[in-house]
Write a structure and sequence with these properties.
2 domains, alpha/beta, 6-stranded mixed β-sheet, 253 residues, 5-stranded parallel β-sheet, Rossmann fold, 9 helices
Length: 253
């Protein structure tokens, strides 16, 4: 089967951003469409009030993503909460710590981050008695709460945003030869939008074991998968698939 058109379940790269998919499209004369299968939706102030959680009763906030940063400050603004200068920020990466500059004067705040989660947790030992506010998404991975439980930190877990399916009703999935997925929720979105979707001759590409697991659970046949040894990205895996197809079509080359 000749591949002519690919859909990638992610936002399109910026105009000045180099994308390996663009290079792939140029090299193999493909059309690559970018379309987010999922979107982030914040909980409303009304929903937050139902949690009956006092943000200011916490002396620290534990931030696992830039999205968590955005929604933490968003809900504070909507609730008319002024975050005190004394608030401590525990960030799981340096990029998240740097992103805080969007909302606060960086040099005046107590910001902690580690190259690894274990390093951050050790740094937090000096603030063992601090009550921590933990903003999370629905769904979220359980690893962070488990680690905080293991270290016996006092924290409040609060859902501040949700991952929901995008409206894809304007698409015709039969137009695509390869569907590229990066998360289990994108697989879920496919079937929420197209309950009767049948794979047929289309190839399914999955990044990560949890995405592959979701695809298999949905009875999809996975043709392209990453990461693998020597194939760290999904674009590399797709290119390898295209090369294999070319060999099949032209065995003498």
């Amino acid at each position: 089967m000749k591949v002519k058109r690919i859909i990638v379940s992610q936002p399109a790269p910026g105009e000045t951003e180099k994308s390996p998919y663009t290079e792939l499209a140029d090299k193999y004369h493909l059309r690559v469409d970018f379309r987010p299968f999922i979107r982030i939706e914040g909980v409303t102030a009304k929903e937050f009030r139902q949690y009956k959680v006092d943000i200011l009763a916490h002396g620290a906030v534990f931030l696992t993503s830039k999205t968590a940063v955005d929604h933490y400050f968003r809900i504070c603004e909507e609730m008319r909460i002024t975050v005190p200068y004394t608030m401590k920020y525990f960030c799981t990466s340096v990029s998240i710590a740097n992103y805080l500059q969007k909302y606060i004067v960086y040099r005046k705040r107590k910001i902690f981050f580690g190259t690894k989660i274990e390093v951050l947790l050790e740094m937090m030992q000096k603030h063992k008695d601090e009550k921590i506010f933990l903003p999370l998404s629905d769904p979220h991975k359980p690893e962070i709460p488990k680690l905080l439980d293991k270290k016996k930190y006092k924290y409040t877990k609060v859902i501040l945003y949700r991952t929901v399916s995008s409206d894809l009703s304007d698409l015709n999935m039969k137009d695509y030869d390869i569907l590229a997925f990066y998360s289990p929720t994108e697989i879920k979105s496919l079937f929420q939008n197209f309950p009767d979707y049948e794979q047929g001759e289309a190839k399914i590409a999955c990044f990560g074991p949890t995405t592959a697991k979701a695809a298999k659970a949905a009875h999809l046949h996975i043709d392209i998968q990453a990461p693998r040894p020597q194939v760290p990205s999904l674009t590399m895996a797709i290119e390898q698939h295209l090369k294999d197809l070319a060999k099949t079509e032209n065995p003498e080359e």
